[in-house]
Design a protein that fits this description.
The complex is a heterodimer of chains A (333) and B (499). Chain A is mainly α and 333 residues long. In chain A, 76% of the residues lie in helices and 1% in strands. Chain A is built from 15 helices and two strands. Chain A has a two-stranded antiparallel sheet. In chain A, helix 6 (89-107) crosses helix 12 (222-248). With 499 residues, chain B is of the alpha/beta class. Chain B has helices at residues 44-51, 74-79, 97-101, 115-128, 144-155, 174-189, 201-207, 230-238, 293-300, 323-328, 338-342, 349-354, 358-361, 369-380, 400-413, 430-445, 457-463, 486-492, and strands at residues 4-15, 18-29, 33-37, 59-64, 67-69, 82-85, 108-109, 112-113, 162-166, 193-197, 210-215, 218-224, 260-266, 273-277, 282-286, 308-313, 316-317, 331-334, 418-422, 449-454, 466-471, 474-480. In chain B, a hairpin with a 2-residue loop joins strand 16 (308-313) and strand 17. In chain B, helix 4 (115-128) packs across helix 5 (144-155), helix 5 runs parallel beside helix 6 and helix 14 crosses helix 15. The longest helix of chain B is centred in the middle third of the chain and has 16 residues, at 174-189. Chain B is globular, with a radius of gyration of 25 Å. Classes of the chains: A mainly alpha (333), B alpha/beta (499). The interface between A and B is large, with 39 and 49 residues.
């Protein structure tokens, strides 16, 4: 029996090779391997060009600098795997920080923080409602809420820089000299990674992204899962808003500008397909690190931040082109 | 015997280290129709692409009209008079019928498109195959069968001496398929050598003069159709005698309470449908595309709603608003279109098979890969899935028949007692088809209640214990086991026999 099984497995493998041709190497190479190699190359390059690069303090800086983007990217990864988008994260962060700034003096830090979190989740609820109940395409719906909350933030805040005092938890360093905001990011990444990989909710997200129709037919409540994903993305907007308010100690109309693009860049760079159904939180962390290390390294080399932006864009196109090439070699889709 | 237009000798082809064709010989005579059969992976498509100039053989010769030929591309094969009509229709839907027929061979005058010559060419091409289509109609507005006629008309333009049809009827209705066969016969009468690639045995015997079977890259049968039986062809395809699964009446469940009762169900696609289904039964629900069979099946599993009548499961009224509710009522189903409704394409076999069971397999919301793998291994061998036993492969790497087995396994793992299977053998090759029949008979024998909703009478003929026939949304015939046959089914469905 065992022999027969093995034989069957072998013929099945032969079938694959016959169809796929000479591409088994590419098929077997995990998607993250190339990204890890790229990250490593970056690290080697920058450690050669700056002696400060490899120090503990600098690594803490890298993680801290990407902590807000990272928390938002956790939600972005879930959504993109399900075939959805949330472009409202940047303006959402600004709006949440504004709510914090406006209320903290009158109702106190804890109630104001709770309110800010609820407001973030409210943004998620609006997005989820538009996408799952009304049926608006996620790109359009969140493009709309992006504009709405950016506009609200600027008109209510009046374009001023508003101070938020006594709210510096994010820069507190409880152990190993790591700021709390970086620890929050690490925790969120681990939890979302586990949820995606090992929970019914997470598997349902993959199933929906792979084929929403089929997912519904195997009994998954697809709309509920997508709604919950937007709600979670909203919770991360709330958390990101609090981190931003605390890190900066203030907020203005331009807070969080362009964060949505940084999030999408990291998630796509991390190997999540725009078509949905594939991707991991681990990949997104690598994507975040590739961008974060690049920005950090260029800063250490004294290169203007405008160039950093151009470099990030270049990197994104490079990574996606590489992925297209890989898919073509594997010969699928 | 007429002279051979195309003589192929000793064709070999490897991809990387794997040799796919191990020396294939084939003769195509002018004016004859040769059917080429073979299971998925037998090398059919590679062979055909070599004939069409798309691949180059590593070894072997092709001679056209007695002269050695060497094709360096599709253009060379075209010039030699060989045309391929691919499985997927490749037309320009925004252009007219006439423009599509002359596509790529536009007649010009002074560098500009000569519209009058184009009309004439298109008309002649259609006349030649005895078809009639409005030349100025937009192709997008035509039915699939009509678009296929355009493909054939295009293939006859210029010097075309050999036309290869690749699974031409896969998407056609019975009536359209009959028309297609008529066209193919006309082409042969005119002296064209036709190579007809198919999965369907009944087509071979109604259409082909000669049958050629490929198995594992070798020709395992090549004889005139009149000299072989269906069973011989199947044996040549799968390499062993295939035991036909047949439902045997007199099951031990006779007299048991029905598990599913439909009373005067109605919706936009069907009306007044009443029937019962008991454990151990395989109820064949036969009807052509558009008869309402697929919609009725979808209504039974909560994928669609019905707005009139009552459905009872185990005697209790049921009105499913979401497939999850039907699944909770122990109903499993195979959808009509495997790709768009069944597969979770980026997921593994284990994930695909266990998907409806995730809530049950989970421990406080968490699912380990180990549990999914062990769920898969429970069914891997029983269903004889040709794949890695670990279930870690991505499901789209499997052939259609094996994908279908995994999707069937979903409901075995979920413990469904009622199975509603829509087009269970669509796009599945002959060997796997028989295996699926065998599995269904076994499931019925163990007390499952099964509905096969299909437009393929072979499904009903092979395993149904009772049959319902639908025409235009109405239930027009119910047949006991001993009255089911190809003739009675197609007659009741109002179409007459295939071809």
């Amino acid at each position: 029996m065992h022999d027969k099984l093995q034989f069957e497995a072998m013929t099945a493998m032969a079938d694959i090779d016959a169809n796929g041709g000479k591409t088994s190497f590419w098929r077997k190479t995990p998607e993250s391997a190339a990204l890890l190699a790229f990250l490593l190359a970056e690290i080697v390059f920058f450690s050669l060009s700056s002696p400060y690069f490899l120090t503990w303090g600098n690594w803490v800086n890298v993680i801290t600098a990407l902590s807000i983007t990272g928390v938002l990217a956790a939600g972005g990864t879930m959504l993109l795997i399900a075939g959805q988008f949330d472009l409202s994260v940047g303006s959402g962060v600004a709006f949440v920080a504004l709510v914090m700034a406006l209320t903290v003096d009158s109702i106190g830090i804890l109630p104001a923080s709770a309110l800010a979190l609820v407001v973030g989740m409210g943004i998620g609820v609006i997005n989820g409602f538009l996408v799952t109940k009304i049926g608006v395409n996620a790109l359009i719906a969140t493009l709309g809420t992006l504009a709405i909350f950016r506009g609200l933030t600027q008109s209510i805040g009046g374009g001023k820089n508003m101070l938020i005092s006594n709210f510096d938890w994010a820069i507190w360093r409880p152990f190993l000299n790591i700021p709390l905001s970086a620890l929050v990011f690490v925790l969120v990444a681990i939890v979302v990674g586990i949820v995606l990989k090992c929970s019914v909710f997470g598997r349902s997200i993959y199933a929906i992204g792979a084929n929403e129709n089929a997912a519904r037919l195997v009994g998954i409540k697809t709309k509920r899962v997508v709604f919950l994903s937007f709600l979670l993305s909203g919770a991360f907007i709330g958390l990101g808003g609090l981190m931003s308010a605390s890190q900066l100690g203030s907020t203005s109309g331009t807070t969080g500008l362009g964060l949505e693009l940084a999030v999408v860049t990291a998630v796509i760079l991390g190997g999540t397909s725009l078509k949905g159904g594939t991707g991991t939180m681990f990949g997104t962390v690598i994507g975040l690190l590739i961008v974060g290390v690049l920005n950090n390294g260029l800063t250490l080399m004294n290169i203007n931040s405008s160039w950093q932006q151009a470099a990030t864009g270049f990197l994104l196109i490079l990574a996606v082109s590489f992925d297209q090439l890989r898919q073509r070699l594997v010969g699928r889709r | 015997m007429t002279t051979d237009f195309l003589a192929v000798r000793g064709i070999r082809k490897s991809f990387g280290p794997v040799e796919v064709l191990h020396g294939v010989d084939l003769d195509l005579a002018a004016g004859t129709i040769t059917a080429l059969l073979g299971e998925n992976g037998a090398g059919k498509s590679t062979f055909v692409r070599i004939l069409a100039g798309d691949h180059r053989p590593d070894d072997g010769t092709i001679s056209v009209d007695g002269k050695a030929a060497s094709f360096h591309g599709v253009g060379d094969a075209r010039d030699a008079g060989i045309r391929l009509i691919a499985q997927e229709i490749a037309d320009a839907p925004t252009l007219t019928v006439a423009e599509n027929i002359v596509l790529g061979a536009w007649p010009t005058r002074g560098g500009l498109l000569d519209r009058r010559a184009m009309q004439r060419m298109a008309e002649e091409a259609l006349d030649l195959i005895g078809a009639d289509l409005p030349l100025m109609a937009k192709v997008a507005n035509l039915r699939l069968g009509e678009r296929q006629i355009i493909e054939i008309a295009r293939a006859t333009i210029g010097t075309s001496k050999c036309i290869i049809f690749d699974e031409a009827t896969a998407a056609l209705s019975d009536a359209e398929a009959r028309k297609l066969f008529h066209l193919i016969r006309r082409l042969a009468e005119r002296g064209t050598a036709v190579l007809y690639i198919t999965h369907r045995l009944d087509e071979v015997f109604t259409l082909a003069d000669r049958v050629c079977v490929l198995r594992d890259g070798r020709v395992s049968l090549d004889r005139p159709t009149s000299e072989v039986t269906q069973d011989q062809v199947i044996e040549a395809m799968v390499g062993r005698a295939v035991a036909h699964a047949r439902y045997s009446p007199g099951s031990s469940f006779s007299g048991a309470q029905p598990v599913l009762e439909a009373e005067r169900l109605g919706s936009d696609a069907f009306a007044d449908i009443s029937f019962t289904l008991g454990p151990g039964e395989i109820l064949g629900m036969y009807g052509k595309v558009g008869s309402g069979v697929q919609e009725l099946a979808a209504s039974l599993v909560g994928a669609r709603t019905f707005d009139r009548g009552e459905l009872f499961i185990d005697g209790k009224p049921a009105h499913f608003r979401h497939p999850a509710e039907a699944i909770a009522a122990s109903i499993g189903h195979l959808p009509a279109d495997r790709a768009s409704e069944g597969l979770l394409p980026t997921l593994t076999l284990a994930e695909n098979l266990s998907a409806p069971s995730w809530p049950r397999l989970a421990r406080s919301g968490m699912l380990s890969g180990e549990r999914l793998r062990s769920a898969y291994s429970r069914w891997h061998r029983k269903l004889r899935v040709k794949a890695d036993a670990t279930g870690d492969q991505i499901i789209t790497e499997l052939s259609g028949g094996n994908q279908q087995k995994v999707l069937l396994g979903r409901w075995l793992e979920a413990g469904s007692r009622i199975l509603v299977l829509t087009e269970p053998t669509r796009g599945v090759d002959v060997g796997a088809r028989q295996e699926i029949y065998r599995i269904l008979v076994e499931l019925a024998a163990s007390g499952h209640a099964i509905i096969i909703a299909t437009s393929d009478y072979e499904d009903v003929n092979a395993v149904a214990s009772r049959a319902l026939v639908l025409v235009r949304g109405r239930l027009i015939a119910e047949m006991p086991h001993d009255r089911i046959s190809t003739e009675t089914l197609t007659e009741a469905a109002g179409g007459g026999v295939h071809a």
